[in-house]
């Protein structure tokens, strides 16, 4: 069985997902959910996202997409194309018995893989904030909300937020 492609992303009200190669907010609750949602799965990410994380994440396998030949990402798998990244992630998913491959960003990777993505685990962040990385616009004709949870804001959360699950309307 081919694993589902699932984008996991936190997005501000104005579509911002990053600034200066980092997150423009601190949401401890979202980081906990991210860990739980990605654990035991291969993750495809761009080089800048990999560098912003700074290390392999425990319990997951990272596939780093870069155009830089010979790029080294200790503890991760390196791919020089999206096609290669998907092939590596599918092999890893089979080895890990993972039902999903996570699309972990950044903006360029989300955009490039959006047509193949079947689900989006979205954290809607209650901020309108400046940034230089944006999540692509989603058409309500293509995506339907199938779950929403709005937990109370924790002590280490800088904003209100909701966890939203979106599914592609046809074939998701």
From TrEMBL:
<dbReference type="InterPro" id="IPR001796">
    <property type="entry name" value="DHFR_dom"/>
</dbReference>
<dbReference type="InterPro" id="IPR024072">
    <property type="entry name" value="DHFR-like_dom_sf"/>
</dbReference>
<feature type="domain" description="DHFR">
    <location>
        <begin position="4"/>
        <end position="168"/>
    </location>
</feature>
<comment type="function">
    <text>Key enzyme in folate metabolism. Catalyzes an essential reaction for de novo glycine and purine synthesis, and for DNA precursor synthesis.</text>
</comment>
<keyword id="KW-0554">One-carbon metabolism</keyword>
<keyword id="KW-0521">NADP</keyword>
<comment type="similarity">
    <text>Belongs to the dihydrofolate reductase family.</text>
</comment>
<dbReference type="Pfam" id="PF00186">
    <property type="entry name" value="DHFR_1"/>
</dbReference>
<dbReference type="InterPro" id="IPR017925">
    <property type="entry name" value="DHFR_CS"/>
</dbReference>
<comment type="pathway">
    <text>Cofactor biosynthesis; tetrahydrofolate biosynthesis; 5,6,7,8-tetrahydrofolate from 7,8-dihydrofolate: step 1/1.</text>
</comment>
<dbReference type="InterPro" id="IPR012259">
    <property type="entry name" value="DHFR"/>
</dbReference>
<protein>
    <recommendedName>
        <fullName>Dihydrofolate reductase</fullName>
        <ecNumber>1.5.1.3</ecNumber>
    </recommendedName>
</protein>
<keyword id="KW-0560">Oxidoreductase</keyword>
